[in-house]
Amino acid sequence: MSTSRSSLHPVVGLDVAAVRKDFPFFDSGIAYLDSANTSQRPRQVLDAMQEYFTRYNSNIHRGVYRTSMEATERYDATRRKVREFINARSLKEVIFTRNVTDAINLVAYSWGRTNVSEGDLIVLTVMEHHSNLVPWQMLAQEKGARIEYVDIDDAGELRMDQFHALLERKPKLVAFAQVSNTLGTITPYREMTAAAHEAGAVVLIDGAQGVQHVGVDVQEVGCDFYGFTGHKVLGPTGVGVLYGRRDLLEAMPPFEGGGDMIKAVFLDHTEYAELPMKFEAGTPAIAEVIGLGAAIDYLRDVGLDAIRAHELELTEYAMEALDEIEGLRLFGPAAARRAGVVSFDVEGIHPHDLATILDRHDVCLRAGHNCAMPLMHRLDVAALARASFFLYTTREEIDRLVVGLHDAKRIFA
Amino acid sequence: MAVDDQFYREFILDHYKNPRNFGRLEDASVSHEEYNPLCGDLVGMDFRIADGVIEDVRFHGRGCAISQASASLMTERLKGMSLEDARQISKEDVLEDLGIEISPARLKCALLTLKVLKVGAYGLAGDEEDDE
Fold first, then answer.
1. Contacts of residue B2 in chain A, CB cutoff 8 Å?
2. Which of A205, A278, A339, B8 has its CA at 20 to 30 Å from residue B47's CA atom?
3. Measured between alpha carbons, how far is residue B16 from residues A52, A162, B60, B77, B95 in Å?
């Protein structure tokens, strides 16, 4: 439920009213229930980015003048914060990417093209986000590798019997989400990683929905790769993180070539930079990386345990309230076994129509396939509506969701 | 609080709940399906075409009220129409049939059927609706 480090501290209640004051977005009066899609950003993040743009805007790792050095220092500071946040051994194991999609593609291209060959097996799950599915399909197609998918049970939890059976076929790679973006299911990622390693597989965990809710200690979990994205953890869009085990990253060829990723360039060959720069070609999203640093500071100040407790309370409240609506079906496991994500449908009303009506009530809700079309097919639904919560979400916002749903039912009655 | 009765006008809801020409054609000359890439909604159409005229048309699929009502309305428009005339059906025609203001986010729902018609019946690329 929480990392070994933070669970040493007692859970302190979260002052949601105080938290919300840090988020200018809420001045709009909109009920925002779409944080699994993208989170809101606190003033601290916006200020950090604004300060870069207005006071020391310069490129990094190049200039010898002071503003460039400050930009470099602040950029590198985020790498230290990320290392601590996920407890990586070394700064060399923290690569900045554009988002999780980019992180997974980096692994699929660089590690995958080097290590996966014809007939090899890749194990995924049916509830993966497209970002942890399509890159592997592309790799498998190119290499003639096979993909097998772990199914879910009726509660929306992974079929571990199937998972273990697939491991007996010695997959090269096992990749799965720490938390399902649609069902909210917290997968048994520790147990899965250990079992996959025993079977000799490399393990990638998609932490897009996990790192900000349940946290991660990559050393304790032992995964080989872990990705998360800035814009879902109170940070800006355009920046994500790939954690990779150092020995694997060292052996991998670069993903993209260009500036910043080189040690020396000659007309007939290039010597690549050391980690992590080997994987960070071109001028990065400097302001965004600095903003991500402020976001991690914010999350750590509030505390992941407090956030998790708050979300659990809200999830229970929401599931209870939604369950009382006739014709509404909830998907996924019990509140305690999921992050703050609740997907549902309402008989006779397509989720798009729900979301349009809720929009007129100033309630933001995700509706559609949630970038998990295979899961929609598995659940035999065209689409789902999804409400998701974060540290700033209130019961009042969930009440407004319920009111809007009743109005939708009235219109479609 | 009640909002937005204008958006979901009665006849849209009627087409959604009681879709016209819903189902499959056993003897279709052309069948085509398209997914809305944003939400996974599906509209498929079967056409029976003879002498350049759409003799019969059915649609199937699953999706929101807008996409399904739009498909239902389209089948009514198409039945008995010459392919030449059907080719002239425009985005504006579809939106006029729906008769409601469609937000940019929902435009793809409204125009999915038109894409099925263009790609299916004419083999057009169907890209032109994608620029919205």
1. 407, 410-411
2. B8
3. 52, 40, 12, 16, 16
